[in-house]
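CORE FACILITY INTAKE
Project code: CF-77B
Contact: R.S. (postdoc)
Sample description: multi-component assembly, three entities in total
Requested service: structural model of the whole complex
Turnaround: standard
Below are the sequence entries exactly as provided by the requester. Do not edit them.
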Amino acid sequence: MSTVAFTIIAILTLAAALAAATLPKLMHAALSFAVMFVGISAFFFLLGAEFVGLVQIFVYIGAVAVLIVFTILLTRHDTEKVRGFNWNGVVVAVAVFAGLIWAITKTKSLSQAPLQIEPVTVQRIGELLMTSYVWPLQCVGVLLTAALIGALILVMEEKRE
Amino acid sequence: MSGDAVDQIFIHAKQWLLSFMSGRAPDWLIQVASSLINIAVLLGVFLTLFALISVLERKILGRMQNRYGPNRVGPFGLFQPVADGIKMLIKEDIVPARADKIVHFLAPVLIAAAAILSLGVIPYGRNMTPFVIDGGILFFFAVGSATELTVFMAGWGSNNKYSMLGAMRAIGQMISYELPLIITVLPVVMIVGSLNPDKIVVAQSSYTFGFVPHWFVFTPWGATAFLLFFVSGLVESNRTPFDVPEGESEIVAGHMTEYSGFKYATFFMAEYIGMFAVSGLGVTLFLGGWHAPLRFLEFIPSYVWFFIKLSILLFVYIWLRGTLPRTRVDQIMNFAWKFMLPMAFTCVVAAAVWHYTDRGLRGWLWSFVVIAAVYVTLSILLDTRRKFAPRTYRFAE
Amino acid sequence: MTLSNLLIVSAALFCVGLLAALSRRHAIFILIGIEMMLAAANINFIAFWRFGPQPAQPTGVMVAIFAIAIAAAEAAVGLAMVIAVYRHFRTTNVDQLNRLKG
């Protein structure tokens, strides 16, 4: 049952990712990018990390995808497509994929079946964030504030005197 | 206990239906069948409620405006949704010639899907949550935030400048008010210690002195948080007084301009179901869920109490629509960022103060003082009356 | 659903992201590719947490949460840069952003 679900989600995610990478029209690519994140968060649910899956939907589809779509709107000129597709990139990507597949299949200890664990609860994540991971939490807070202010400054119109 | 039988009547009915399959089917098939029964009942109940609310809203608005609402189709006009449904179904479905067909088609489908998905985690009665997810509240908000992208798809897929502008206004409004919506839920989650809606309802179950329920709305931070949550819910569902994205005098119909017939009905349904979902969540988080307000009234089944509270909230929505004029879009944004967000953070602080003074009378007073202090400070800082200059008149020479 | 199958899927996702980042000429596509690569790495973290020996703390989950937050911040800044560059050069084609060259 979980193998069937895994296969379906894997096919959906990879198809959406390929669509996002290769579609000529930018808006369709951005929307299939959002669909790909639904697939990835379905993976997280399947692996027992439900909180990460929910945060993924929230952050990526609710925020990053909307940002990308707004940026596409704001940087449009009359031609919809930006021409040019560099085929060298395809060669490099295929080569990297081949290398990774070789490394994965050669490692014998990786073909194990999953153990039965209980999914990690939100309460456990909250406890960890406040005890062992409190410094990374504060640093991420500072980082997000810096990113917010930086993005605002980059985009603000210069005042004309 | 006959009270328990009436209360759990739907659970027993579902178990009776599933008992036909129990010996003969594998486990996962029974789980799938159980989920399908949940989904079918949820859809049936809420689509009927949507039809009923659409006619009741027009009648209540009509009565507030000193006229009858629709009263010709059926007794007291209650079959009006049937007539509306037939009208929507037989209308011609016009798609603009240069619109992006796939995106234009998928937008109403996905917005309705997101709205209905968020209904699945709300506890409607004792043991009657359709899908029990450990992070249920987070699921609700994650699905709600996916609505923004679908609104954008509707605006962009119509290939119409007014649709695009309406969609951008709608998304700006929705993103701005998502923050107060989520941060006002934070005190409740903090005090209960769990994101599971069932646990939040159970935490509101006791009564002091036997007749005052422990609902969170009866605490100072809870009352403030409930008001802020309610207003944010109004904005998220694009209801008057915040219906700039769909006001006809502003932007034709905003992102729904180019939709006709059944697709428009789907948008309409998605908006109302979003309203039900946010009201349902408000009832769960602040108004005690399916608990009765007084201990001796507990014989009335839990789902009846839930729907009574939901109906009261929906009536307040309709009442506000009939009473208040529309706000301007910059007023909406100012209100969100300058007033609601600081007040939402104050609620978090006040809840912490209430909790750490052992939830006694001193806790009440201190948290009330915190909220009142911030409120007064904000009203002084944001006072706009003194900023208007005296009127200057210019005459033609 | 073995660990190697999961790793193959995430390797494929990573390579599709690499494809998008290397072969498209629009700045936003490159950012989409980078986000895809980050998501593939997140899947790897969660996969190794799930299939490996269970330590006392779910480290893979925590790293994935922080990685999502950081990726969102980086996407925001990257998109702000794309808008700022568009304002000056009126183009988003990265081949034409070569003023500093030579």
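Facility notes:
- Strands of chain B lie at 207-208, 212-213.
- The mean pLDDT of chain B is 85.
Invoice: internal transfer
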